[in-house]
Structures are given as C-alpha cells and as structure tokens.
Amino acid sequence: MFDDQKRQSLETWRTKLKQPTAEQDIEQRYDELLTAADDMEQSGLISNAEWRQLVREAGAVFQKQLEP
C-alpha cells in the first residue's frame, strides 16, 4: 500500500514536471511542484534525500524554461 502510494505520488509529480507550461505560468508550476514535494516529505512518502532530488529536478526545469 505505502509503496503504491509513493509510486503514484512520484508519477503524478513527474507528469506535472514534464507538462508544457505557458511562460507566465512557469513560476506557479514551480511552486506547485515544490509544494507537492514538501507534502510528500511531510507525510513520510519520501525521504529528505528524495525531496532534495525532486527540488533539484524542478529547479533545473524552471531554469531551462527561463533561458532565452
């Protein structure tokens, strides 16, 4: 049960990460990704190390979308 919930939460998070976003919505999506990562960590679904990895992934996508 726990593993299924973790897998589903991470799949949902990564799907959201990969969705194309209009330029004006980039920061909103970044905030949503960080909030979702925070929620997963606080609920015990992911470890602190996994949380840091998700934050890095979100940051990399955010930075790439801001580049000209």
What does this structure look like?
The protein has 3 helices and no strands. Helix content is 78%, strand content 0%. With 68 residues, the protein is mainly α.
Count of separate DSSP helical elements: 3
Shape: elongated
As for the number of domains, it is: 1
Strand content: under 5%
Number of separate strands: 0
Major beta sheet, specifics?
Answer: none
Q: Report the end-to-end length measured between terminal Cα atoms.
A: 44 Å
Low-confidence stretches: none
What is the element string, with H for helices and E for strands? HHH
Approximate helicity band:
over 70%
**For the residues shown, what is the average pLDDT?**
91
Q: Determine the oligomeric state from the structure.
A: single chain
How would you summarize what this structure contains?
By secondary structure, the chain is mainly alpha-helical. It is built from three helices and no strands. It has one domain.
List keywords for this structure.
about 70 residues; mainly alpha; about 80% helix
Topology:
Elements: H1 2-18, H2 26-42, H3 48-66
